[in-house]
Amino acid sequence: MKGLKAAMAGALALGFACAAHAQEFPSRPIRLIAPLAAGGVTDMAARLLAERAGKYLGQPMVVENRPGAGGLVGSGLVASAPPDGYTILMGTIGTLAVSPSMYRKMPYDTDKDLIPVSLVAGGQFALAVHPSFPARSFAEFLAYVKARPGELNYGSAGNGSTLHLGMEMLNSMAGLKITHVPYKGTGPMVAALAGGEIEIGLPDLPSALPFARSERVRILAVTSTNRAQVMPEVPTISESGLKDFDVVVWLGVMAPAGTPRPVIDKLNSAMVQALKDKDVADKLAEVDMRVFASSPEEFGKFIKRERDKWDPIVKASGAQIE
Per the structure, how many domains does the chain have? Predict the structure, then answer.
């Protein structure tokens, strides 16, 4: 009986401590770790969110770039941080949905060491070709490529990048055989496409836009089931003949496992409010990112669906890393 009373007293004390911590939270600045280099869409979205969410929380939210190993360095930092809400992660489709299938040994357990706060935003890729490529529609593209199995090349941002896996999904669903040529990043790949080194690429739309507008590449279709806000005249792959093809690049905030639920709720509320602001949505729309604010539970289910979708693609691509 004494043991039971002691356990109950301990649990009660822990509950009061968590409640008190949540009431005080936040009492100092919060670090939002961006696991990719400064200057990209992930960094831009993180800074937009941090600036506005910090105002709703009453404390600064400071973005800290910790690139390395495709986002695993920054993600691992958050996974091992104290679960108090003061160090959180801007997770990506790569770090949360692709890496767990790609890496044989992860430096942390995505399912056990991190918990969802909110989905933030999503964008899409563009099926782009060199201007000399004879196809001017997705249907013409399919016919041309199917008649030349193994003869054409596509570029990616590197082995296992979302650009690589997106093209492998297209190969699989459409019955194509296009040879993969990896580059060290999206920028070099798009430059190679514009220069005629490769015929085909699947860059993120913001990276492709300047080249498309200067007619150095031609965009045939976009990869989500919604047309792009910045190029509404360009059809989707799904509506152009490959029904249900849907590749979206997305971002969402995670916290260390064990972070008290009241703290998660405060973070989620501030982020949802921030993402409802029209100027935030408008700035994201400039790089073709749509607001995808959610509850922690909705984000958790979304991650699972994405993991289930990408796992077989990763395995079929042979892009596993030791």
Answer: 2
